[in-house]
Specification:
The radius of gyration is 25 Å and the shape is elongated. Strands 12, 13, 16, 19, 20, 23, 24, 25, 26 and 27 form a 10-stranded mixed β-sheet that branches. The protein is 25% helix and 23% strand. Strand 17 and strand 18 form a beta hairpin. The chain is α/β, with parallel strands linked by helices and 596 residues long.
């Protein structure tokens, strides 16, 4: 996998405490050659650098294009994704235009990054996403802000696909423009380097991804006094553009919003900068993302463009995970008593069927149990609901048939809506939707699950969490039609924006720091700091209360953000207490997932 994705952890219930996919992998991309992309970007940037040295005089004296205003034109809304803000605390329906690249051998990256960006902007209001070459003059006038994602490096063998109309409108509008990654030098060249420098105070045409012949080792981005992580595998780092800030009379001030640190040489630079109405980020921060990652900068900067009057507040959400008919009622009641005493509302993720089809934990004898067949568990669930819990559906069986998917076929351990295996390097690999995947099949699973809640005398769950956070695009639409929201991390598949058929396992995985309305049209509630997992597994380190608290601290940089996490009730109570105490001490207030 190019980039990784955090999946929910697993358990077998009833005291059978063993790791599944807890901690999981971090948000990112599947089946995308980021190593090849990074090499192509740096090769193109080096060529631009060489051309710049040869043509310095010509470049710096380039005549400026006109900054004349353009009139508004009719807006093509065929790619409109969202119809309403995800949270009534956001500004009154701001609109966002997301433009992305599709050209070149890595053109598929554009749509994946555009979905991730559109999902975040879906917190604020309506979002329209379209390939940048579809931009027409004046289109920006119909939106609150525009975001361009430069994932294809234009130049050399890849002609510039950005219309001159967008360059002109971006340079003349007074509306917020957020530009990520490549081709900012194209804007400067189009409108004139001198004019660009006089308006924005820096020179993209002399700004490069390398510092002294190397991308260096940029491992930290500091934003709002939070030291955020940046961890890129060797050979897959396309670099961060180091902006050439101009000083002296005649140049406006450039605000360094976030500072990048290159630990190979100690150099710091503006990882994100702003001048006039232009905010520029030197990379696209959606690959190799962790719970304390530099993507937090983007998540917060969107408020500046779309809801600048937002009042700062910090909320937390917790849920208890992988509860099944095989869970221990005493453990559930113990958790309920503690959370109730602390006045903490919480979610309970319940799997209505426990099955061990191969007898993995039952001496080789297959076993299947429903909620109605475990009245003591049901009684404990009702006890929890009376003490602040919110009932959530966590699949039907949380496993797939009698096969290892990827472990043993037992409820809580395995994927239900997606196939997976463990490779020879001990990594969990997503293989694609299950063979029979369809809208009808997924709806059948949901219908069966809901019937079992009713049979047990429990209310219908209003919220859903996908087992191991993995389903197909068709599955997510089914979940959306049955539940008011999902509380989870999700997969977003290529072809979702364009309608084109694509590799069903080419996706971007994402988690959110606030409530969003995503490109599937579903409200998604935040789980962004992970879960307690005391043991390492599948190349993922243990994740202890201190780690969750550190991630919550990093997310304080999001001015109206959350710390969302989950906990398995088969673990001891003390780590949960430690985690909650630490998050409270940071100033977070716990709220019910049902209130979001």
């Amino acid at each position: 996998m190019s980039g990784t994705f955090l999946a929910a952890s697993a358990q077998a219930g009833g005291g059978r405490r063993h790791t599944g996919e807890a901690g999981g992998t971090t948000s990112g991309l599947s089946r995308v050659d980021l190593k090849g992309w990074a090499k192509a970007q740096l090769t193109a940037d080096l060529a631009r650098h060489d051309r710049q040295r040869e043509n310095t005089s010509k470049t710096t004296l380039a005549s400026a294009a006109s900054f004349s205003s353009t009139s508004a034109s009719a807006v093509d809304r065929q790619a409109t994704l969202l119809s309403s803000p995800a949270d009534d605390t956001a500004a009154a329906d701001p609109t966002t235009l997301v433009l992305y690249d599709t050209a070149g051998p890595y053109g598929q990256l554009g749509e994946l990054y555009a979905m991730a960006t559109a999902n975040l902007a879906g917190h604020f209001g309506t979002v329209t996403a379209k390939p940048v070459q579809q931009y027409t003059a004046g289109m920006i006038d119909s939106y609150t802000a525009v975001i361009y994602i430069g994932s294809t490096y234009y130049g050399g063998s890849i002609p510039d696909a950005i219309p001159a109309a967008f360059y002109q409108d971006a340079a003349t509008t007074t509306k917020p423009v957020l530009w990520m990654g490549a081709n900012i030098w194209g804007l400067a060249n189009d409108v004139g380097v001198t004019r660009f420098a006089q308006k924005y105070g820096w020179d993209p045409t002399t700004s490069y991804y390398e510092d002294g012949g190397s991308v260096g080792t940029v491992t930290q981005v500091t934003y709002k006094n939070q030291a955020l992580t940046r961890t890129i595998p060797a050979g897959q780092d396309g670099g961060v553009l180091r902006p050439t800030i101009l000083t002296g009379s005649g140049y406006p001030a450039v605000i360094r919003l976030a500072e990048g640190l290159d630990t190979s040489n100690g150099h710091t630079f503006g990882w994100a900068i702003r001048s006039a109405n232009l905010t520029y980020m030197g990379e696209i921060p959606f690959a190799y993302v962790s719970e304390s990652d530099r993507v937090i900068v983007l998540e917060d900067l969107l408020f500046d463009a779309l809801a600048p009057a937002t009042t700062e507040r910090h909320r937390a959400v917790v849920r208890l995970e992988d509860i099944s008919p095989d869970s221990d009622p005493a453990e559930l009641r113990s958790m309920a008593d503690y959370l109730y005493a602390q006045n903490i509302p919480y979610g309970i993720n319940v799997i209505p069927v426990y099955t061990d089809p191969n007898g993995t934990y039952n001496n080789g004898v297959p076993e299947t149990v429903t909620l109605a067949q475990r009245p003591q568990v049901v009684s404990a669930l009702k006890y929890m609901l009376a003490r602040g819990a919110v009932l959530m559906d966590h699949g039907y069986t949380h496993q797939y048939g009698n096969v290892a998917n990827p472990y043993n076929g037992v409820t809580g351990d395995d994927f239900e809506f997606y196939r997976a295996h463990v490779d020879t390097a001990n990594n969990v690999v997503h293989d694609g939707p299950v063979a029979e995947d369809s809208t009808l099949w997924a709806q059948g699973r949901v219908t069966s699950a809901l019937a079992l809640f009713t049979a047990a005398g429990l209310p219908k769950p209003a919220l859903w969490t996908t087992p191991h956070y993995a389903g197909s695009a068709a599955d997510y639409k089914v979940f959306s039609s049955n539940f008011s929201a999902r509380l989870e991390r999700s997969l977003y598949f290529a072809g979702t924006l364009t309608g084109a058929s694509s590799d069903p396992n080419r996706f971007i995985g994402q988690f959110f720091p606030y409530v969003v309305k995503d490109v599937y049209g579903t409200k998604v509630l935040p789980e962004n700091i992970g879960n307690y997992e005391p043991e390492a597994y599948n190349n993922h380190p243990a994740r202890l209360p201190a780690d969750l608290i550190a991630s919550a601290k990093a997310n304080l940089a999001v001015r109206d953000g959350f710390a969302g996490f989950f906990y398995h009730p088969y673990y001891a109570l003390q780590p949960l207490k430690d985690t909650i105490d630490g998050i409270k001490a940071l100033g977070y207030t716990f709220v019910s997932p049902a209130a979001l």
